[in-house]
Amino acid sequence: MSLDTNQLLLAHGNEILLLVEPASLAILSANAAATRHLGYAQEALLKMQVTDIECALSDVFYWEDARNGIAPELHDAEASYLKADGEVLQATKTVVRATPDSTLLVVCALPVGKLQRTEKELADLSARLRATLEATADGILVEDRSGAILNMNRRFSELWQIPEDLLLAHDDAAIFEFMAGRMRDPEAYRARIDEIRPYDDIETVDTLMLANGGVLERKSRPARHGNLIIGRVFSFTDITERKANESRLKLAASVFTHAHEGIIITDTRSCIVEVNNTFSRITGYSREEVLGQNVRLLKSGRQDSAFYTNLWRDLVKLGHWHGEVWNRRRDGTLYAEKLSIAAVKNVDGESRHYVALFSDITELKEHQHQLERMAHYDALTGIPNRVLLADRLEQAIAQSQRRKRNLAVVYLDLDGFKEVNDLHGHETGDLLLIAIAQRLRDTLREGDTLARLGGDEFVAVLTDLGEQEEWTGILARMQQAAATPVKIRQHTLQLSASLGVTLYPQNGSDADTLLRHADQAMYQAKQAGKNRYHLFDPERDRQTQTHLETRRQIAQGLVRSEFVLFYQPKVNMRSGEIAGAEALIRWQHPERGLISPGEFLPLIEDDELIVRIGDWVMDTALRQMSEWRSQGLSLPVSVNIAALHLQQEDFLQRLQAKLETHADVPADNLELEVVETAALEGVSRISRLIEDCRSLGVRFSLDDFGTGYSSLTYLRRLPASVLKIDQSFVRDMLWDSEDMAIVEGVIGLAAAFRRTVIGEGVETAEHGELLLRLGCDLAQGYGIARPMPANDIPAWAATWKPEPSWSACRNLAATRDDLPLTYAEVELRHWVKCVESCFVASSVATVADLCEYRFGQWYHGDGQTHYGRLPAFAALGPLHASMHALGLELTELWANGQTELARGRLSELHALRDEVTRHLHALQEECIEARQVLRFPLF
């Protein structure tokens, strides 16, 4: 292009051109378009700075950057120019360098013309349209003739809950598919959409059921430009609440017609204006018969005028009333109804109608009466039950407080009733209870109460009592009534009663306390032998409370793992083998330290807690046996089982489960110890249980044998494999011939019944030696080992050795022929203890006693007769004489007040005793050898 052409464009072009020096911002040159658009003369522009005419704040910022040399090489922006007439000219501008190596800047600005104003007007129109769409309460969707979305408002996206990311994607197909997915029946929706074509000249109305329960009404109509259809407009209205209201109205109408309650609508004058079907069914009146009638036609006459006065007062004041009313049916019969009345008011708060709802509760009232009778009276005997007793007792206490008189609570339990039930059946037992209850009630005075708590337990409340003779006389009559024979069918039955008595206010301040005290007193009457009464003892109650607290602590201790097992070894004294160990529970109390079982087990022996303790002991013992086996120590363990634990119906199943849990422990390594007295209480059941346990491999032993007075029949019926001689007999058998006789008898019984026998309480080597001579090889006791923690058992087992004195007894086969010598040894020890007793207490033995002691009688009598021919017997003579003389000498010293001198010489007496004992043992060995070798009878 030529220079003339360029100048022509500069002169006649429409674009403003300015040449600017950036350091001073001075306008160095301007074209004709600049003077034409801005209205300034050429000379005026060349005297200005560019910031004099560019008035936008963004322009000023740019030129400040240009002055500082930090403006960009190319700058495009919107600009505002201040014209000479004061108006502002809007333009778009570009600022560039004049030449690459020049610092001058060229501003090229193009004024904004009519197109922009048109666009602005269109934008304003679009904004008004958008505002109109957003202002409407309906959701609006606009489609073109092809079905593409042209516009939608926010309400539309809210109604359909269209995610924002889906709206921003502008994917019409995805939006339509999302809408179909919101429908309860998407396929039907899609089919209907296909039927509504955007270019059809039709208007549609549809109800849309959404999957979430909502309901929309959709309307559509064609959008026109002149006569041309250019698309379709859809509007969506949420009619969920409207539909719900319509449903509720239909439901209300249905409820009124078909409600199970009778409904009456009256005007303010109580005239009936409407009733439902149930009203007619209950009252017998048809709708036509009662419309316009006053509700008084239903009155029964059982409520007085005051009742209706109060009803109307509440109805006017509160706007509602509810209660129970007796009314009359059409046929004249009365019925009870549960009635609720509410006032229907207008907008001014004035009552216009009353609505009454009622239901027939006649049968309910009859059942209520029966239930009240059942709730307060015993179904079998007809006398008050526990509930009514509580109410009567509270009333009696209040009456006693007012009158300052005593009352007594008597807790009665029949003796032997269970046996009657078991022998003659429950029906006979029930008839017996009825008869006795009637007799007991007849013994009481008017104002007294007799109640049955259940089973064969009764409680009597004796009120308004004076002297003791008054209530003791009533107790005597009650006992006589319970003990009088009763003939039921072909049986004449007779029982007795144990009564517990407590007095108010002496022994309690409330009903629960009095009943508890009477129950405790009744239990004491049972313990004392039955067929008597026992007056409550407060001191015993305090002990009971202490026991209850201890039981609570025991239960907490079990939860907190405060219990531990100690193990006391059992040994075979003859062979020197370790036969096993007995698991003994200890309580590691956080405050009292280690507590022995004798301090806490007796308190829970009749409580279910003893079962939990027993289960814990078995689990712990089996777990410990398993641990020992892993260490190479196979040690059988016996555990003690309480009577209540054995009586549990599922005892065998629980035991089997524990054995299966510890399958590595052989079942025959577990032995269950049962005290003899517990076994004898239910010998038949215990016998079956022992057999069942033996089938699992578990062994049983009878503990404390000899204390239960078992007969040979019981012993034969109890298949326990081990008898444990009670330690009280073993401990004293060294010097008590009667205890020694019991021990010898138990050993003989065990041999006769082929049972293993073990002696408890072996505290010294002498105890073990005597047991061996009597034929008992197994033993346990402090003389062998004290109970110890499980971790100490392996070390003890590795180092234990039997007493040397037991070795001499290993090869001796004693027989009953040798028992006289054993008894002689016991009598010898008894005589020495008698001498010792003189120096430790008041006089126990006299010189005459010592002269007539049994050992001397035996030595000069049966001993001389049976053993006099043996050499060992001859050696006993001098020793016996010396010991006897020393004993007399010591007692004389004591009698003369020389106690300390006598005590100092006791060691001489002990030495002689031991020497005589050794000779007795030698004599026994000589007898045994004589029988074995010479084969001749000694006598």
UniProtKB/TrEMBL annotation:
InterPro entries: Biofilm_reg_signaling (IPR052155), EAL_dom (IPR001633), EAL_sf (IPR035919), GGDEF_dom (IPR000160), Nucleotide_cyclase (IPR029787), PAC (IPR001610), PAS (IPR000014), PAS-assoc_C (IPR000700). Residues 245-294 form the PAS domain. Residues 547-801 form the EAL domain. It comes from the Bacteria. Residues 405-538 form the GGDEF domain. Residues 321-373 form the PAC domain. GO terms for molecular function: catalytic activity. NCBIfam families: GGDEF, sensory_box. This is PAS domain S-box-containing protein/diguanylate cyclase (GGDEF) domain-containing protein. It comes from Propionivibrio dicarboxylicus.
